[in-house]
Amino acid sequence: MTRIYFVRHAEAMGNVLEFFQGRIDCDISEKGAKQLEKLAERFKTVDYDVIYSSPLIRTMKTAEAVNSRLKLPIIKDERLIEINGGVWEGRKWTEIAEKYPKEHDTWKNNMKAFEIEGGETMTEVYNRMKAAVTDIADKNRGKTVVIVSHGCALRNYLSFAEFGSPDGLSEVGWSDNTAVSLIEYDDDLAPTIIYKNDSSHLPHELSTLAFSRWSKYDEKK
User: Fold this and answer.
1) What count of other Cβ atoms lies within 10 Å of the Cβ of residue 154?
2) What element of type H or E holds 152?
3) In 3D, which of 28, 24, 57, 25 has the Cα closest to residue 206?
4) 12, 69, 171, 217: most buried, per Cβ within 10 A?
5) How many whole angstroms separate alpha carbon 21 and alpha carbon 10?
6) Which residues are catalytic?
7) pLDDT (tens digit per residue) in 181-210
8) Cβ–Cβ < 8 Å for 169, 122
9) Rounded to the nearest 10 degrees, how much is the dihedral formed by the CA atoms of 121, 156, 8, 30?
10) pLDDT tens figures, 40-53
11) Vertex 54, ends 184 and 181: CA angle to 5°?
12) What is the pTM of this model?
């Protein structure tokens, strides 16, 4: 049995200032550092064989926290990076809703069809994450793996794992910062979700989503 833990990065400055981070290489916030302390505690009892991370600062620092006990080499994998938000990158969610109403409506209500000038389509993110994780699982058969990535990227992969298509994007929902999902794979690399988007290691005051306003701009209500 192959097992993969998927971890979303800690709160970063884009989460605090509520702009579209995408590929912008933001550092983690003060709350993010506290989230990482709790995440490190959670992984003190988890043994794994290999750890992969998106190369951005916020994911690498999260991977380092996960890896604080075992101290394995962290493998940087560009395929695990966040969606390229094109002209949205660096813009506040309030501005996005006002200046790009059509694209914003698609993001909220028909996420699988999202595309933006200068960026990736959601289909491209879905296919990229599906291919990357399948490759990682294939290369590490019988092992336990950790993958540290980003909110939109992980949402796409979880849609594949649970629904087999991007049609489940709205059902998967957003994970909180440092939330963990666990998936097991059989010999054919068919995924079975054991749990998803679990942030039980965080006390309420360290949640990002519980106190964030951005969800009302980018989440379907």
Assistant:
1) 27
2) helix 151-163
3) 28
4) 12
5) 13
6) 9, 150
7) 999 999 999 999 999 999 999 999 999 999
8) yes
9) 40
10) 999 999 999 999 99
11) 30
12) 0.95
